[in-house]
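Collaborator request, handled under Task 6.
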Amino acid sequence: QKAADYLEAGIPRVWIVDPQAKSITIFYPDAPPKTFTGSQVVQDNFLPGLKVVPQDVFAQAGIP
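Structure tokens returned to the collaborator:
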């Protein structure tokens, strides 16, 4: 529900990083959310050039 609140307030993207599920979910104002895990590359045209790999994020954070 929090993601929806932010989107309704005009925030263009909401990223939820879930350390338990080791996933990154991106919520959009005009499309269904997308969840990324493992070695999937997270890219978003809203942030050109940014590439994030969930397993690298959690490894760097020390989350096994």
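The cover message to the collaborator said: "The mean pLDDT is 95. The chain has two helices and three strands. Please let us know whether this matches your experimental observations."
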